[in-house]
Amino acid sequence: MNIRLVDLNDLEEILNTYSIARSIMKESGNPNQWGDSWPPKDVLIDDINKHQLYCVLNDLNEIVGCFAAIEGIEETYLDIEDGKWLNNCEYVTIHRLASNKKGHNVFHDAISFMKNKYNKDIRIDTHEDNLIMQHLIYKEGFKYTGIIYVYNGNGRGKRLAYQLVK
Description:
- This protein has 166 residues and is an alpha+beta fold.
- The protein has four helices and seven strands.
- The chain has helices spanning 11-27, 41-49, 106-117, 131-139; strands at 2-5, 53-57, 63-71, 91-99, 121-126, 143-152, 155-164.
- A seven-stranded mixed beta sheet has the order 1-2-3-4-5-7-6.
- Strand 4, helix 3 (106-117) and strand 5 (121-126) form a beta-alpha-beta unit.
- The longest helix has 17 residues, at 11-27.
- The two termini are 22 Å apart.
């Protein structure tokens, strides 16, 4: 699979990918993490403009998934409960990972890409009901570090936090 930056021409397909991902989440017992509208279009456009939204392409050059790779301090990660980060090294955060059922191994491909692109630790978080993501996170070697809280359209949301040391 190939990975490239998303541009505005991809926006409708990216929005569709997130819509499919929300359906998958609901079907697997995780209806609350993204609800009916997360991530909103304006957040994705901001990601595109900041050159931090990537798409995963299959061998036919079709978008099969997407994710945001965000360098620098993640404000919601400054406070962590019931644990601690494994170190204070620089890191990149993966957010808004989604698959549209057209491809396999989207998470693995995203993590492999991030390991190669950034010489930094990788941090990620997910909802406690997102058992599929938790399984994938552990499969890639991440360690559970504690609980953080994100702010989204639904208010303050509890998330399980993980870190992969470089």
